[in-house]
Design goal:
The protein is mainly α. The relative contact order is 0.15.
Length: 191
Amino acid sequence: MNIVLAILGLGLVIALAVIGFVIQLYNALVRQRNEVRNAWAQIDVQLKRRHDLIPNLVATVKGYMQHERETLEAVIKARQQVVELRGGSVQERAQMENMLSQTLKSLFALTETYPELQANESFLALQEEITSTENKIGFARQYYNDAAMELGNKVELFPSNLVAGMFNFKPEPFFEVDSAAERTAPQVSFG
């Protein structure tokens, strides 16, 4: 009788230990998934800031660059497409944001041929704001990718992959640059 009670007691202790371990892994996965979501929200905040600055930049540049209408329209169109894609996947958003970055690079490259625009205080302030925002977007992307990597590791590595599979946790995609041309840093000239 004592042996049966001892075996039942040992079985109960082992079951409780396993349940506690599963709970710990589950909570770690939830925390990491929430960190990825928070990191994405931080990217979204910076992207929104950039989207809000673009109309002011275009309005400032428009008066000086009347012959560059095609470039201005490309920037406006790229911004509009990104704004309309608000709920898209990480890959879709990354692709559209990269396209917007390319059109902004083109715009800034063209502004170098307009000395009076380069001397305009409003333009210089907007250019500085956009450059600062681009840096913040870069840091937010890095933070997101780090959080996505950590979640991916927890989802794929043993033993947390067993719990991840039971509760349907999935790795999150990285926010990546699509083409080699987009991997180059924007060349911004301040005069």
